[in-house]
Amino acid sequence: MTGSRFGQWLLALTALLACTATHADQDLVGVWHLVAYTAEDPGTGNIIAPFGEHPTGFIFYTAGGRMAAVISAGDRPHFTAGNRINAPEGERAAAFSSSTAYSGTYTVEGESVTHHVEVSTNPDWVGSHQKRFPRLEGRRLTITTPPLPTRPDGKLRVSRLVWERAE
User: Fold this and answer.
1) pLDDT for residue 24
2) Which residue has better confidence, 12 or 108?
């Protein structure tokens, strides 16, 4: 292949890959409602539901490259004091440990999406890059994580979050 032809071929391949990446970005764009969240111990295969049997949450991906996620256990009690400011410390700790939220930008590369965290209920995540592996099937988006510390005991597990398109 001559240099000129190789250059044309490389330009065409680059354009094709750029279209694919843009298409992948567009597949994620929207509002997704959480329908299931499980976590598997890679060593034993044991599966748990870190936020209970009926977790709730949303993840948002914008066309401009921003994202936000919030997840909580579905059975969280209300504060006995009527608000989080006056709630006893134990109730506030339970509320914090039964939910998570973060937001930032995202990039899609190949078969993964990386969340670039700017704000989070977990201060250790601020400034981090959280790699995820999305799979779209119809109106369902399954996002798999690499092994991460998981509630309730901080053990490393692979999480699978199933989302359904809300918008």
Assistant:
1) 54
2) 108
Cα–Cα distance measured from residue 156 to residue 134, given in angstroms and rounded to the nearest whole number = 20
For residue 86, count CB atoms less than 10 angstroms from its CB and return exposed for 0-12, middle for 13-18, buried for 19 or more.
exposed
Domain ranges for the chain: 3-165
What H or E segment, with its residue span, contains residue 156? strand 155-165
Residue reference for tokens 């034993």: 44
**pLDDT value of position 167:** 87
Question: How many residues would you count in the chain?
Answer: 167
Residue holding tokens 């976590």?
Answer: 39
Return the minimum-mean-pLDDT range out of 4-18, 111-125, 151-165: 4-18
pLDDT (average), residues 92-114: 96
Instruction: Name the one residue in this structure whose structure tokens are 């499980």.
Output: 38
Residue pointed to by tokens 């329908």 = 35
Dihedral sign of CA atoms 20, 25, 27, 28 in order: positive
Q: Does domain 3-165 have CATH number 2.40.128.280?
A: yes
Structure tokens given for 164: 């359904």
